[in-house]
Amino acid sequence: MTSFDAKLFLAKVGAGKTILEFRKNQNVFEQGDIADTVFYIQKGRVKLTVLSEQGKEAVVAILEPGQFFGEGCMNGHPRRIATTTAIENCVITSITKAAMVAAIHDEPRFSELFMAYLLTRNSRN
Fold it and tell me: Which helix (H) or strand (E) holds 18?
């Protein structure tokens, strides 16, 4: 039995996973878009912004390589609650909700990585 490498898993294309490239200032997704995918930053940085009902934009996070975003779809958020924009050229893994659920169920090391990330992120909020 080979050991599971979570970072290698996230760096490769596979069932439900796509490697995407974004240019500086390109949106990954916009507030209000359908939420059905989780993203993992391999290279580059992104900013998360929210737009208030009054039209004011606020930066709520700057994310770096090794971080996930868009994970709200995993707990039932049907729409994106923020806009995510590349602040430099980025390489990002897109993982469908179904592929995330399968990886969490089938790969304990991936599940540990994702849970540790969620717990760390929640402790900062």
Answer: strand 17-22
